[in-house]
Design brief:
Structural class: alpha+beta
Strand order of the largest sheet: 5-6-7-8-9-10-11-12
Distance between the termini: 76 Å
Shape: extended
Number of helices: 31
Number of strands: 24
Helix content: 40-55%
Radius of gyration: 42 Å
């Protein structure tokens, strides 16, 4: 923030109302020998107050936060600082408060600064200002300091944010001026002096793995002293020596710092620092270069002096070797004094963190560490992802011995490597018994893209079913022309599961790659061998898409002219039905298939499929479907009822009602009964009531459920008859007594009570106890005196557990409306 924005001299005229506000707190402060100035806070608790300075008329500054109710939450004190005295005003409790600094400027009292202090904003990213007093010069008197805060910016190991863009009160000018801070002044950690050298202690190049992620900087060039503009110094870890972090304070940058998080749990052995980017010494000297650096690892601190000017070593790495391996969650690098002043800010091009892995063990140790618990194993997998072909080779060698979570993390590392050298290992993982491992292998192949297609095409013929399905999924998600060609070549082969996987993958690939022309050519061209493959490609089309539906229609018309095997005809009929929803020209072909005579079970299946498909054609096939209701084959009659219902053909209602009453097959009577509310709502109540006396247990149960669903209280007497019939099946009696409660059949409470009492018999069977429990719940819904009596009886400790549980469930059931 610019200096001008930190200064506030109050020249606001005092409103008459404000002058009359009471003083909440005041102090007659001695700011210089013989100069006593009254500083007061005026206002009312809970409202915005005013800071008043001096006699009538006072200098007044409005306060932006409401005044606290507690008197001791407002403090006014005199602080003796280097070169003079200031008055510190604070209004507010701990945390966010309003503060002001009052001092003499040009012999007159003035507000040097006032504003809100403390962190504000979303947790983890809060910013704010702070006003403090600290002895920076060692003269025994503090300086008044104003600085910014940003919650993410802190030295490694510190629990509080670091002071940013510090300014100190200058008594001579009465203003706040920028100052340098010794960032490590408050650290209790001992400082160890270590050597710095331009010679590598062993590692030949960059670290084997990237452990450091730079998360914050105390300043950056162009930040405008605005903490909201402080971005992580990613240039320090981007492997590009042409980029750099440049501090934003100017001067020699002393005290500015960057902080990185360290992952993996491996001990840090050395820190490499490239200070000057590659170029000539003259170019490097245009920028500031530190003469010393401090490195902070929480409670451990090291300082190194740079042996000669980094400008003469542009592009070279300065090595700072630690006395022993040090494991820490973070690291801060703090700039010390600089070489000869330069026109530009102090810069650092790259910071490299070398661990135990770089001094022995390396990639093989990372592979072993995949078996470490928790985040340690995950860190090993993440670090392996940056090791390139060497990591791929090591994982491939270790894979047979990896089990469980370690195998899964190894698969994740292979996926993140995105290296063709991983393909042999990935082929093994595609058939793994752990779905998580297969998912990572699929992700890896998708990341590799077209170069992986040949391997995936081979896997489509693999002996392991999971590998075949995973390969199809990967090809579909790659979504390219080569991937789609591989899938088309495999369509129609293998078992049903593989055919389905390939169909789904083709659909996805066409959507991703715009590969419809390729699929169209395969369907309608002359390149395919075998009708089965053609039909599988046809089934992969999205018939909800107009363009793909048009291709499907042309392909079906072509297929209809050729002799087909049974299963081929069956699939084509199903596709015709889907097409007939918008292409009714297929109704005639489906009608002919539905009306053709059947002399075998297979032909009956084909007729049933044709009838079912014809239901998608609306009323265009109604005549054939009505005739099919009287077909001698039960499956054809069932398909006809379903198709007519789908077509909403009310003209077939009488025939469907006849099936519901008379058909020899119980499942057909139930199916017809289910269709009547759609085809003939006026006839449904009588048909449902009649079904309650059906000879089939399943039809009677179906009738009870339908009566409940339709809310047919007129059927309550017939349902009560089923519940009260001692010769009725227990399942029917249970359904019936439960339905009476749902229908709020108060007239039949006596029957329900009779069933409930049945559960108290010592010889009650499990089925009878189930019926009694349903009766308890029905009584609870209906309510009344009988219900209360039976619920009390069911809750007795001596009652069977089934009844006690039913009574407990009854507490949560909705009640019938009062009569």
């Amino acid at each position: 923030m610019k200096l001008a924005s930190l200064l506030f001299v109050a020249t606001i005229a005092t409103p008459a109302a404000a002058w009359g506000d009471p003083e909440i707190a005041h102090l007659d402060a001695t700011l210089a020998p013989g100069r006593i100035v009254r500083v007061a806070v005026r206002g009312i608790a809970g409202a915005h107050g005013t800071l008043a300075i001096g006699a009538r008329p006072p200098i007044e500054a409005p306060l932006s936060l409401p005044l606290p109710a507690e008197a001791d939450a407002i403090s006014i004190r005199t602080v003796e600082v280097s070169g003079g005295a200031v008055v510190h005003v604070r209004s507010g409790a701990a945390g966010v408060a309003e503060e002001a600094l009052v001092a003499l400027r040009g012999g007159r009292p003035a507000v040097v600064w006032s504003g809100v202090t403390g962190l504000r904003g979303d947790p983890g990213g809060r910013t704010g200002k702070a006003l403090g007093f600290e002895d920076l010069t060692g003269d025994g008197r503090p300086e008044a300091l104003l600085y910014d805060l940003s919650e993410p910016v802190r030295l490694c190991g510190d629990s509080s944010p670091a002071p940013l863009f510090p300014r100190a009160f200058d008594p001579g000018s009465g203003t706040l001026r920028p100052v340098l801070l010794n960032r490590l002044r408050g650290s209790r950690a001992p400082e160890t002096v270590v050597s710095a050298t331009w010679q590598s202690p062993g590692p030949p190049g960059r670290p084997l793995v990237s452990m450091a992620t730079f998360t914050s900087a105390s300043s950056i060039q162009g930040d405008g002293e605005d903490p909201m503009r402080l971005a992580p110094p990613l240039a320090l870890g981007d492997a590009d020596l042409g980029t750099a972090w440049a501090e934003g304070r100017g001067g020699d940058g002393r005290g500015e710092f960057v902080t990185a998080s360290l992952s993996g749990g491996y001990g840090v052995r050395a820190v490499g620092v490239v200070i000057s980017s590659p170029g000539t010494p003259a170019e490097a000297r245009r920028h500031g270069r530190p003469r010393s650096l401090a490195i902070v690892f929480g409670d451990r601190r090291f300082r190194a002096t740079i042996p000669d000017d980094p400008a003469d070593r542009a592009g070279h790495t300065l090595w700072i070797v630690l006395p022993e391996a040090l494991a820490a969650p973070c690291m801060s690098l703090v700039l010390g004094e600089s070489f000869t002043a330069a026109s530009g800010p102090t810069r650092i091009a790259e910071v490299l963190v070398y661990s135990d892995l770089d001094f022995g063990g390396g990639i093989d140790r990372l592979v072993e560490d995949l078996a470490r618990p928790g985040a340690l194993g995950e860190d090993a997998a993440r670090l392996l992802a940056g090791t390139g072909p060497a990591g791929a080779a090591a994982l491939g060698r270790a894979l047979p011995g990896l089990e469980g979570r370690a195998r899964f993390l190894g698969a994740r590392a292979l996926a993140d490597l995105r290296d063709l050298a991983t393909v042999p290992a990935l082929e093994v993982l595609m058939g793994d018994g752990d779905e998580r491992v297969r998912t990572e292998a699929v992700r890896a192949f998708i990341g590799l893209g077209d170069p992986a297609v040949p391997a995936l095409a081979r896997l489509l013929g693999d002996g392991r079913a999971p590998a075949r399905a995973a390969a199809a999924m990967a090809l579909g998600r790659i979504g390219s022309t080569p991937a789609l060609e591989a899938l088309i070549a495999k369509a129609g082969e293998g078992d049903a599961e593989l055919r389905r996987s390939v169909r789904d993958a083709i659909s996805r690939s066409v959507a991703l790659s715009g590969g419809l022309p390729l699929l169209t050519n395969a369907l309608l061209g002359s390149g395919l061998e075998g009708t089965n493959r053609e039909i599988e490609l046809l089934r992969s089309l999205d018939l909800g898409n107009a363009e793909q539906r048009a291709v499907a229609a042309r392909a079906v018309e072509a297929l209809a002219t050729r002799p087909l095997e049974f299963d081929e005809r069956l699939r084509v009929l199903g596709i015709m039905g889907r097409l007939c929803e918008t292409e009714t020209r297929f109704a005639s072909a489906l009608g002919r298939a539905a009306a053709s005579p059947a002399s075998s079970a297979r032909e009956e299946i084909l007729r049933a499929e044709a009838v079912s498909a014809l239901g998608h054609c609306g009323l265009a096939g109604a005549g054939v479907l009505r005739e099919a209701i009287g077909d001698r084959a039960p499956r054809v009659r069932a398909a006809a009822i379903e198709a007519l219902t789908r077509a909403h053909d009310r003209g077939a209602a009488a025939k469907v009602a006849r099936v519901a009453r008379q058909d020899a097959w119980a499942f057909l009577r139930s199916s017809a009964l289910e269709s009547l509310p759609i085809l003939a709502p006026e006839a449904a109540p009588a048909a449902v009531t009649a079904a309650l006396g059906d000879r089939s247990t399943e039809v009677r149960r179906h009738g009870i459920r339908m009566a409940t669903r339709l809310g047919l209280r007129t059927a309550a007497a017939a349902i009560a008859g089923r519940a009260d019939d001692p010769n009725e099946e227990a399942e029917v009696r249970t359904d019936a007594v439960y339905a009476l409660g749902l229908l709020c059949a108060r007239r039949h409470v006596g029957v329900i009570k009779k069933i409930a009492r049945m559960g108290h018999r010592p010889d009650a069977t499990d089925l009878e106890l189930g019926a009694a429990g349903a009766a308890i719940e029905s009584l609870a819904r209906i309510g009344g005196t009988v219900a209360e009596e039976e619920l009390r009886a069911a809750r007795r400790p001596s009652s069977p557990a089934a009844l006690r549980h039913a009574a407990e469930r009854a507490r949560r059931l909705p009640r019938c409306e009062p009569p």
